[in-house]
């Protein structure tokens, strides 16, 4: 899939005029856009259509966007962008904790939305078809005692249990695991995955790692598998699995 063309987007927005405007704008830029206006309908559409990216309003009839995200995230691995009128940090954190990959607030700025979509789709394309330079030593399977991470089929096995990660969660885990025993700077993670310099406020990478820790049974209060190195970044401990 070309990240700039042919991607299928699901837009979930109950403001009919706004939904039409966003849909027309993205369609004019070669995206295929399916639109729905209710959260409960969105859950079914995400399951049946498996869109390349979901644009998800926070406040929806039937089921709000945060609950939609929480409901579909265990099985849906593609990017989710939360779009909401609420501009409180707690809502941003909540959306990201529920599994969203990005978060923008209304009023929607067309170029910002387009840039976020392109960035996430480029990242997704890199995950599906990684280039040799993205893979140290061209390893396709990383093994750490009871943890196995397979880049080829995008699977994670811990203690013989299959762990479901979103594509973006897998990408972060793979990035850290390739550098096991090294401190990976937060700035490097943000620059690599978000495409801009770390400004001291972006929480998306931190929350993504928090979700990974929870799924890999790390201690959230005192993580020992994916350690926080205060003031620097993160360290994947190779001997704690």
Give the topology.
Layout: E1 8-12, H1 16-27, E2 32-36, H2 39-49, E3 53-57, H3 65-72, E4 80-84, H4 89-97, E5 102-105, H5 110-128, E6 141-144, E7 147-150, E8 155-158, E9 161-162, H6 167-178, E10 183-185, H7 186-194, H8 204-215, E11 226-229, E12 233-236
Parallel strand pairs: 1-2, 1-3, 3-4, 4-5
Antiparallel strand pairs: 6-7, 7-8, 8-9, 10-12, 11-12
Q: What can you tell me about this protein's structure?
A:
Strand 1 (8-12), helix 1 and strand 2 form a beta-alpha-beta unit. Mean pLDDT is 82; it is low at 129-138 and 197-201. The protein has helices at 16-27, 39-49, 65-72, 89-97, 110-128, 167-178, 186-194, 204-215; strands at residues 8-12, 32-36, 53-57, 80-84, 102-105, 141-144, 147-150, 155-158, 161-162, 183-185, 226-229, 233-236. It is built from 8 helices and 12 strands. It has a 5-stranded parallel beta sheet with strand order 2-1-3-4-5, sandwiched between helices. Strands 6-7-8-9 form a 4-stranded antiparallel beta sheet, with helices on one face. The chain starts with 7 loop residues before the first strand and ends in a 5-residue tail after the last strand. Helices cover 38% and strands 20% of the residues. Helix 2 (39-49) packs parallel to helix 3 and helix 6 (167-178) crosses helix 8 (204-215). With 241 residues, the chain is an alpha/beta fold.
Short description:
The protein has 241 residues and is α/β, with parallel strands linked by helices. 38% of the residues lie in helices and 20% in strands. A 5-stranded parallel β-sheet has the order 2-1-3-4-5, sandwiched between helices.
